[in-house]
Amino acid sequence: MREKFYITTAIAYTSRKPHIGNSYEIVLTDALARYKRMQGYDVFFLTGTDEHGQKIEEYAKAANVTPKEYVDKVAGEIKGICDLLNTTYDHFIRTTDDYHEKTVQKIFKKLYDQGDIYKSEYEGLYCTPCESFWTESQLVDGKCPDCGREVTKAKEEAYFLRLSKYQKQLEEYIEENDNFIFPESRKKEMLNNFIKPGLQDLCVSRTSFKWGIPVSFDDKHVVYVWIDALSNYITALGYDPDGSSEQYKKYWPADVHIIGKDIVRFHTIYWPIMLMALGEPLPKQVFGHPWLLFGTDKMSKSRGNVIYADDLVSLLGVDAVRYYLLSEMPYTSDGSITYETIIERYNSDLANTLGNLVNRTIAMTNKYFDGVITNPEIKEDVDDELISLALSTVSKVDELISQYRISDALDAIISLAKRSNKYIDETMPWALAKDEEKKARLATVLYNLLESIRFTAILLSPFMPETSEKIFAQLNTSVKDYDTLKAFGGLEKDNKVTAPSPLFNRIDAEKMLAEIEEQNKAVQEEEKLVLDGIAKIGIDDFAKVDLRVAKITECEPVKKAKKLLKLTLDDGTANPRTVASGIAPWYKPDELIGHNVIVVSNLKPATLCGVESQGMILAADCDENDVKVIFVDNMPVGAKIR
After folding, report:
1. 3-state DSSP call for residue 392?
2. Are 159 and 204 in contact (CB under 8 A)?
């Protein structure tokens, strides 16, 4: 019977289409799942979407759709990107799935019945994007310590989970299980910053919004995100307080939860305590990976530094994107992504090192032996180093994978390809080919190269599956199993390789970067409309800006543009002012008429989709998919804003 291995990602929040930084986690987890399958494990790989909460309710309202319609669309985008990136998840859970919602209600009721959940009242500072309550002392510069956004005072009746009851038990568990939290720095952070100072009981229900799983015995309340979202790891397998499925009994506990470093606290404090209260085993490991940054900044649509997976795939192909994501992310520190580094890594590692090695080895085998693989075993000392490195690379990669050092593992595999290229330079097959007496030695050299390439392709297959299959096809080999890497020499003799075909064509960096810049300019022009930007004002000109209070007297959609509304403003002058504003995704015309707003009154007129716009109204970019117009109804029309 094969040993089981249950691996999960954090489920993605359905607020918006995920950017490439979000996509790193699913590719990382897929690579680990594929590697374990290759080693012979019975793997179950879970991913999915987190679909409830106040933020979703607000996004849906702004988009003028129901919350379910909203999450259906975004969940479809998330699943589509998982599929685009060639990930092999065994189940994709959605927290709106009926079976999940019913089981969460049972979990909540069980914890309530046994006294681990109790009813009280919460008063605190609430961050809507993070869906978290904070105390004054937990704020950083008066803002949410997790996301840095504004918090608001909130008070409501709520149910609470008794974290304090299990604090000592959790602390002892973490200290006794060295491998529970990876890396070590995250473990120290959880113990010293959160657990040992004292755990406060956790708010696990809300009454201020409706988009959530109703508490079965108190329909004023919906189950708060932590019990809802975190439970997915067991509900997906068929956990049920009244009797769990065979699948659950087979795969639980999870061997590892792969999550971002920003949610380690939830997975190593809230989640273990929930499981302790339920009487269920804890996951064996939680790995909190770093972030993938754009340059040195966290990716954010509002910052204009977002790269999407589908855009990168269209430029480079799936495997090149997978390779970059996995090779560029350090073990503990944040990784960085820029188009320049993507192209540089593609050309150096994939085109020059791996692609060149395969192409010229296959070409030489065809040229000198009509493609036939033979191995007369005419050995020289130079062979031993290549063979030794191939064999040691297998154990080295195994060790690195067990520690979640994925970037280092890929570096070891590419190092084998680099050593193979060096072996070509050392043995000089083209020189051997000129001497008939050295034909057998030439055959041995080419066999060693082809076998080294086979080792490389097998080890690369969890990370770059399509590329590995292309290599196997050119080698014309069916010997692809991980177990065949125990000895050097498994490649079939007397087979014929196929015609060489480039794996990766070298990119003209200057040309591609110019094309990307043109595309980005077009996107920025569109974003300028969406966020009311008719013309950007430089800092030196800011003092010239004339801001006035104006009343919206008329408002209608612009027929040629989905995002524009045509506003007629009374700014206290004799003539009405017309402004085209990109706020249609967030406001209907009748929601605006009668409100006073702030208008930049001295912008040069600009024609947008047939409408001459004579200014710009001010709005706030509150979140990555949320814009709010600044209303000043208590100020007189025509007043100057200083």
Report:
1. helix
2. yes
Burial 292-307 (b: 16+ CB within 10 A, else e): bbbeeeebeeeeebbb
Q: Which mean pLDDT values do the consecutive 10-residue runs of the chain (642 residues) have? A: 95 88 92 98 98 92 91 95 97 98 98 97 80 78 83 88 96 93 88 90 92 95 94 98 96 97 94 98 95 66 68 93 90 78 94 97 98 95 97 98 95 98 97 95 98 98 98 97 97 96 94 82 55 46 79 87 85 89 87 93 79 88 77 91 84
> Which tokens sit at 271?
């989640």
Q: Pick the closest to residue 57 from 205, 212, 207 (CA basis).
A: 212
Q: If phi over 0 gives left and psi between -120 and 50 gives alpha, with beta otherwise, what is residue 189?
A: alpha
Beta carbons within 8 Å of 39's beta carbon, 6+ residues apart: 398, 482
Using DSSP, state whether 440 is helix, strand or coil.
helix
**Maximum distance among all Cα pairs of the chain, rounded to whole angstroms:** 101
Q: Is 533 left (phi over 0), alpha (psi -120 to 50) or beta?
A: beta
Which residues, 6+ apart, have CB-to-CB distance to 222 below 8 Å?
Answer: 52, 205, 206, 207, 209, 210, 211, 212, 213, 214, 215
What is the Cα–Cα distance from 81 to 317, expressed in whole angstroms? 13
**pTM of this structure:** 0.80
Is 259 in contact with 301 (CB distance < 8 Å)?
no
Token representation of residue 420: 């193979």
Q: What is the CA radius of gyration of the chain?
A: 30
